Sequence to fold (190 residues):
Amino acid sequence: SLSNLALALRARYDLKGSRSDLDEVVQLHTEVLSLHPPGHPHRGSSLNNLALALQARYSLECSESDLDEMVRLQTEALGFHPPGHPDRSTSLNNLAGALKARYELKGSESDLEERIRLCAEALNLHPPGHPDRSSSLNNLALALKARFDLKSSEFDLEEVIRLHTEALNLCPPGRPDRGMFLNNLASALR
Fold:
């Protein structure tokens, strides 16, 4: 019941943007997590739900404590999705997204390197022909671009261009996200 209420409030927050709804979503997911202690079969999804609620709140106020808690929760959630688990790629991408935000705030090179590692693993789970391959290519390319911006490695830049090119080739004309792929490749080539 708590989870269902939290999901309904999150949908209303997404529609109307009420901060009080979002705060209640965080509170409810925190309570749900307390009902799913380590070892509980639903703990992984509870960790992820709370982390995503904190991510939404972080996007509003850039609270460093929300960000650190988001990374901690997503790290623990990844442990519930070991290699071979069908939700592993989603969990990898969620943690990579949290690390991206923390890297952008704090500039920790270790967060960037871990993000790259997670994006590479997610890409390996999406071989040619997988419907999510283009987004995984894009995620890894953006992570490597951040490292190129930091270290000016020609190898990283060449890999960014290769990954963006492959992502674009998987996105035919008419697809709504094609413009993003075109823009990303053009930016890398520039």
User: Anything to note?
Assistant: The CA atoms of residues 164 and 185 lie 5 Å apart.
